[in-house]
Design brief:
Blueprint (H helix, E strand, L loop, with lengths): L1 H4 L2 H27 L2 H14 L9 H21 L3 H25 L16 H20 L10 H24 L15 H5 L9 E10 L2 E6 L10 E11 L12 E2 L3 E2 L1 H5 L4 E7 L10 H14 L2 E6 L6 H9 L7 E3 L2 H7 L5 E6 L2 E7 L23 H37 L2
Parallel strand pairs: 6-7, 7-8
Antiparallel strand pairs: 1-2, 1-3, 4-5, 6-9, 9-10
């Protein structure tokens, strides 16, 4: 066994395989969170609330971006084999934090979704923990055998790769923050038929419940099933309740409702109605930007002139002080407000406010508050009124090309500078 471990070729194969595998996962995990900075912020916010660390929430947005950027940067460095001592050490420290954290989450379940792969890939808390166990072992091996990883670039070039990867991730996060995620992994993505996404197939498994009977004896309560409840009179019946024993099929959209006290529930008007509907999404009006109030009011006037629906959705109380202050700051907003679950609104669009256009119950377009367009012709005759599907494969390809080409140019420039410097040293010795 000792002879096998001393085999340089084997160690090189192991360390390169491990660092590439970890690097790919880190790049994927960092990328899907970098392109969705609000999603990362919401998840970090959930963690802070669950742990009772609410005082850190003002730092959550910046923290989530830095965390996803660091993950992407470490992944790129592992893939390129750059700065292996520093990279493997930082990755090992990263896993040293994540491993006990995910163990705690798996045991106590303070959040149902760890968010390690954003909305792109949902895995259970226990699956996340065991994944981290495997990766922790692998990164320890990479750290211990880092000298067996082939060195392809100079030290200066390796640091250049790391700096470039960090700037690329931050730029991508900024672009996605000002606009919207370049890839939408959520159930309300463009092209979604909301009504169909709310349906439960006839043959889909349903939730299964068991009846729990609660009896008491000598002041102590105990739970029983219908099959084994106590027969003697020493036990006194207290209560009966249903307990979920097996989760059934849950449709992608299952918590979408729109209502207010005046019009009641108007969900069907949006989901099953014909024609166009604008939804102005504001999870919390007190946190909504009013910088585009003139543009939003112009869209409302446009919708009213052409007979399109326009509803403002928020989780803020409709009679609250916060809503009244928003209406004043928004230039006396005249559009009707309705209540919808806050988490649902955050899932629909990553912008506060954000504008969604629906036609015949299908989401056909979305805009962040930063790029709300000017509508100057009926939607039936406008490109804005047509389904704007995105090609995710093309987007990923463009992202890869957008990362690789500037990097190659940068590395080429660095190599050229190195050649010039070496030639100068060579001539200076003559």
């Amino acid at each position: 066994m000792s002879n096998i471990l001393k085999n340089t070729t084997l160690k090189t194969f192991v360390v390169v395989s491990f660092r590439i595998l970890i690097g790919c996962v880190f790049v994927f995990s960092g990328f899907v969170k970098v392109i969705d900075p609000f999603g990362g912020f919401y998840k970090v916010e959930d963690y802070l609330v669950a742990f009772g660390w609410d005082f850190f929430i003002p730092l959550a947005f910046v923290g989530s971006i830095l965390l996803s950027t660091a993950e992407f940067l470490l992944g790129i460095c592992l893939l390129f084999g750059a700065n292996m001592r520093t990279t493997s050490l930082l990755t090992m420290l990263f896993m040293g934090v994540m491993l006990p954290l995910t163990l705690y989450i798996a045991i106590f379940n303070p959040v149902t979704d760890c968010g390690c792969f954003g909305d792109a890939l949902i895995i259970s808390n226990w699956e996340t923990f065991w994944k981290n166990v495997v990766f922790s072992f692998m990164i320890v091996v990479v750290f211990l055998w880092r000298d067996y990883s082939p060195k392809i670039f100079t030290q200066r070039t390796e640091w250049l790769i790391a700096i470039y990867a960090g700037f690329f991730a931050l730029a991508l996060a900024w672009f996605s923050y000002k606009n919207l995620p370049i890839i939408d992994f959520r159930p309300y993505k463009i092209g979604t038929d909301i009504h169909k996404s709310m349906e439960i197939p006839e043959d889909a498994p349903r939730d299964e419940y068991a009846t729990v009977l609660i009896y008491a004896k000598d002041g102590v309560q105990q739970e029983f099933t219908i099959e084994n409840y106590p027969q003697d009179t020493l036990w006194t019946f207290v209560d009966a309740k249903s307990k979920l024993v097996k989760k059934g099929y849950e449709p992608p959209i299952h918590d979408f409702t729109i209502e207010n006290s005046e019009m009641g529930d108007i969900t069907d008007i949006v989901v099953e109605g014909q024609g166009y509907t604008f939804l102005l999404i504001m999870p919390k009006v007190e946190k909504a930007s009013t910088s585009k109030r003139n543009e939003i009011n112009a869209v409302y006037d446009f919708a009213r002139r052409h007979g399109y629906n326009f509803f403002a959705l928020t989780s803020t109380g409709l009679g609250s002080k916060e809503l009244k202050e928003y209406i004043i700051e928004a230039g006396g907003a005249e559009y009707p407000f309705f209540n919808t679950d806050e988490t649902t609104l955050k899932t629909i669009i990553r912008s506060n406010p954000g504008l969604v256009l629906i036609k015949d119950g299908v989401i056909i377009n979305k805009w962040s508050y930063a790029n709300i367009p000017t509508f100057d012709q009926p939607l039936e005759d406008s490109a804005f009124g047509q389904l704007q599907l995105r090609n995710n494969k093309k987007t990923i390809a463009c992202s890869v090309i957008g990362f690789i080409i500037p990097l190659l140019l940068l590395l080429g420039l660095d190599h050229l500078i190195g050649l010039i410097q070496r030639k100068r040293k060579k001539y200076s010795r003559r």
